[in-house]
């Protein structure tokens, strides 16, 4: 019985001494000077666990060694926890950035769609230019415009102004009656009257091209009054920057 009591008492005494020794040690495994550092919960648990196991296994020395080893393991576990939390935060930030990127792509798609719609509207405007372009007819020996004709010309001016680099070609004509010089002057007056309405509606003067042809292109038979009526006219057509015709009345 004496031997048994001694065997039991040895580890108990060792544990008591180890506790006293450990109480005088800081509860963390990092031995580098860091006065502001606080031991983590996992590190403290590791120190106490290592202390108990070491005391039971090897007395006071085992307790100190166990406490140090337990502290190191606890600190390592703590660092792993911090790393996992940091990774989770990084993943959360990456997800937020991914959602923001998706939103930006959606906004770009919307802008692209709006641009395509605007392009389609411009194409439709060019198609409708055929309906707005027209031949303006005049009475014999006259170069004046009525209000209805002026309103139509104002629409053409607005359309041409909305098309980048578009120009309006204005060609004046006269029937074959009268002297050539007079017909040339009369056709110019008619073309200029149309050009004045276009520029008054806001179309830049340098985008209006005026030309006079007199009766040189007349195809009516002599005495054909109906044919003459069609030749007392001004033809308006839209042209691109290169002179390409965009629209003209048939």
Description:
The protein has 2 domains: 1-128, no CATH class; 133-248, OmpA-like domain (60s Ribosomal Protein L30, Chain: A, 2-Layer Sandwich), CATH 3.30.1330. It contains 5 helices and 5 strands; from the N terminus they run ααβαβαβαββ. The protein has 250 residues and is of the alpha+beta class. The protein has helices at residues 2-23, 41-132, 147-162, 180-200, 225-231; strands at 135-137, 167-172, 208-212, 233-239, 245-248. Helix 1 crosses helix 2 (41-132). Strands 1, 2, 3, 4 and 5 form a 5-stranded mixed β-sheet that branches.
What would you call the structural class?
Answer: alpha+beta
Number of domains: 2
List SSEs in N-to-C order: HHEHEHEHEE
Helix content: 55-70%
Quote the distance from N terminus to C terminus. 130 Å
Report the portion of residues in β strands. Answer: 5-15%
Topology of this protein?
Blueprint: H1 2-23, H2 41-132, E1 135-137, H3 147-162, E2 167-172, H4 180-200, E3 208-212, H5 225-231, E4 233-239, E5 245-248
Parallel strand pairs: 2-3
Antiparallel strand pairs: 1-4, 2-4, 4-5
Notable characteristics:
disordered C terminus, 250 residues, 2 domains, 60s Ribosomal Protein L30, Chain: A, single chain, five-stranded mixed sheet, 10% strand, alpha+beta
Question: How would you briefly describe this protein structure?
Answer:
The chain is of the alpha+beta class and 250 residues long.
């Amino acid at each position: 019985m004496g031997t048994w009591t001694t065997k039991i008492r040895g580890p108990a005494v060792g544990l008591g001494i180890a506790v006293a020794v450990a109480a005088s040690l800081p509860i963390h495994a990092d031995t580098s000077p860091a006065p502001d550092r606080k031991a983590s919960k996992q590190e403290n648990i590791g120190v106490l666990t290592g202390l108990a196991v070491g005391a039971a296994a090897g007395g006071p020395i085992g307790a100190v060694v166990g406490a140090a080893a337990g502290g190191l393991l606890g600190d390592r576990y703590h660092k792993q926890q911090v790393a996992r939390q940091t990774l989770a935060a990084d993943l959360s930030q990456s997800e937020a950035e991914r959602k923001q990127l998706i939103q930006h792509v959606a906004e770009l798609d919307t802008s692209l769609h709006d641009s395509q719609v605007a392009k389609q509207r411009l194409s439709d405007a060019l198609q409708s230019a055929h309906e707005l372009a027209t031949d303006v007819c005049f009475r014999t020996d006259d170069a004046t415009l009525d209000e209805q004709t002026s309103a139509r010309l104002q629409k053409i001016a607005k359309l041409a102004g909305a098309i980048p680099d578009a120009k309006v070609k204005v060609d004046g004509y006269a029937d074959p009656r009268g002297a050539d010089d007079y017909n040339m002057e009369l056709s110019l007056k008619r073309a200029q009257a149309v050009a004045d309405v276009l520029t008054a509606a806001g179309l830049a003067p340098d985008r209006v091209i005026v030309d006079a042809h007199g009766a040189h292109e007349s195809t009516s038979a002599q005495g054909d009054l109906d044919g003459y009526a069609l030749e007392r006219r001004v033809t308006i057509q839209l042209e691109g920057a290169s002179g390409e015709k965009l629209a003209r009345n048939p």
